[in-house]
Amino acid sequence: GRTRRMDKQQAVNWLCWRLARDYRDNANDLQAAVDHHDVARALTDGAFMARFVRPRLSLPQAFDALVDCLRWRMSFAVPRLAEEGMGERSIDASLFYFHGRDKDSRPLGICKLGALCLSKTMSMEEKQQLLVYRLERMSMALPAEEQITLVLDVTDAREGDVPIEMLLFLGRLLVKYYPKVVGVVLVLCDPERPLHVFSMLSTILQPAECWRIKQVSVSDLFIDVPPTELPFRFGGTSDFAPAFATEDKPSRAWATADRAAVMEICAERLQNSDVEMFSSSTFASPRQPPVELSGSLASIWPSQELEFEGLPTSDSSTSIILTNTSAFDIAFKFKTSNPQQFRIRPPTGFVPVCESIEINICKRASKDAKTKEKCLAQFARLPPGHNAVHTDWLTEHWKTVLQGQVQEVRLNVTHARSPVYQPPPEDTMTVLNRIENRIQELIAFTPPMPQPHEAAPRPSLLWLVIFLLGFLLGILAPHLVALASATFPDLTTGQSCRAPGGYGT
Reduced to 3 states, what is the DSSP secondary structure of residue 48? Predict the structure, then answer.
């Protein structure tokens, strides 16, 4: 009953034992699905196998991730690509190369992702092969427990120049096919024109691995990388000219092994019986097919929240983008805590590899604003050769999916108030011009003429004062004449009064 803990070397031995047993017994047609050179490498190269041992994965999950990687390497022809190289192709070697080390002594890789995606002379397959070729060659020469620093240059790209297909492929390389090879990813972009590369890679990667990605500018790049290791375009002093023909191929003893030699290696690994007993006492029996999934099957954009505008008591709608980030076709299904209140279109379906689908969600008004709604998204792998036209068979397929084969993502329902419209602030000249125009309108305004039926205008106050003064003068004039005759009688007779001196008084 007590669970014993394994150290890293014991976990690597268990994975080697499990791979050797399944390859010898041809479990799940493994001999035809993987390259025997990759099996020889996994069984003899401890650094390759140790990269699939993670603290958050059980050993059955780590073995599933290993087999998925080996199957992909077979389908992508990675061993042949690493052996033949890309020297004979007319491909610019400076688009992706490794040279020098950063300030933490990690090997430095520079990928001009923007120029690579904008290249018109290369197909999408050749672009992906260049990424795989460089990572494969570096991983073979990389010692155990050592990681690299990858600089993704997107300064010369605009929004939409980097397709989502390339980002999904790059995310799978970093997480699933070359795990624990890249330690830090520096997304180099223009601060005034940031792209969606940083946010998309953060969505594709697991939450525990998002700390490895940093968005930097050219000036911030010198914090992690010395100027002597950077090219001139980044402000460095390195004049290194990358090429394909001058690279030295690392020695690989397992590259020349045939199937008979691989069987002998498997027999040697299976002779260690302590590994089987140790694994059976710690985990479920390795002979039982694992049902748990490894890695994320899908990502949701823009976030794992359903944000509706307006209050909960009003009708609203939103949409999300569901992207398949796995190497298989997946089926999806949405559930809600109140099906009568939500309308999801489409509620179920499937998404092919490297494709996306838009999910529209409508929400009816809720009577109680305090009610908390919830939504659940479920994903599961689809078997090969499924019907890609009709989706009626998905209902029966979900009944056969085991509990450990379903990934669930809980979506929180949030409400954001609609922003109140506010007019943009006006500058001083605009306000002055508006005031001046208003003044000109008032000056040019002429009052309307009175109509005939309107009353005549009243006399002014000045004419009223003149009329009153004339009336008073007419009344007082006789009295003033009589007073003047009594006071100055000589004035009335025409005689003048003169003094003896001859002067009038």
Answer: helix
Closest alpha carbon to 49 in 91, 16, 21, 81: 16
pLDDT digits (tens, 9 = 90+) for 226-247: 888 888 888 888 888 887 754 4
Quote the DSSP letter at residue 418.
P
DSSP 459-481: PPHHHHHHHHHHHHHHHHHHHHH
Buried b (16+ CB within 10 A) or exposed e, 493-504: eeeeeeeeeeee
Contacts of 478 (CB under 8 A, 6+ apart): none
Give phi and psi for 233, each to the nearest 5: -65, -20
- Say what the pTM is: 0.55
Could you give the angle at which helices 36-44 and 259-270 cross, rounded to 10 degrees?
Answer: 40
Give percent of the chain above pLDDT 70: 71
Residues 6+ apart with CB under 8 A from 23: 30, 31, 34, 39, 262, 266
How many Cα atoms sit within 13 Å of 173 on the Cβ side? 21
Residue written as tokens 């929004």? 159
148-153/182-188 β-pairing: parallel
- The radius of gyration of the chain from alpha carbons, rounded to an integer in Å, stands at 45
- pLDDT for 388: 57
pLDDT of residue 87: 59
Q: Model confidence over 424-440: pLDDT tens digits? A: 455 555 655 666 676 66
Average pLDDT along the chain: 76
Measured CA to CA, the distance from residue 156 to residue 154 in angstroms comes to 6
pLDDT at 466 over 60: yes
Residue 117 · residue 226 · CB < 8 Å: no
CA 387/CA 151 separation, integer angstroms? 41
CA 115 to chain centre: 20
pLDDT tens sequence across 483-497: 777 776 665 555 544
d(CA 138, CA 127): 17
User: What percentage of the chain reaches a pLDDT higher than 90?
Assistant: 10
CA–CA gap between residue 466 and residue 169 (Å, rounded): 103
Neighbours of 173 (CB within 10 A): 19
Residue 169 near residue 354 (C-beta atoms within 8 A): yes
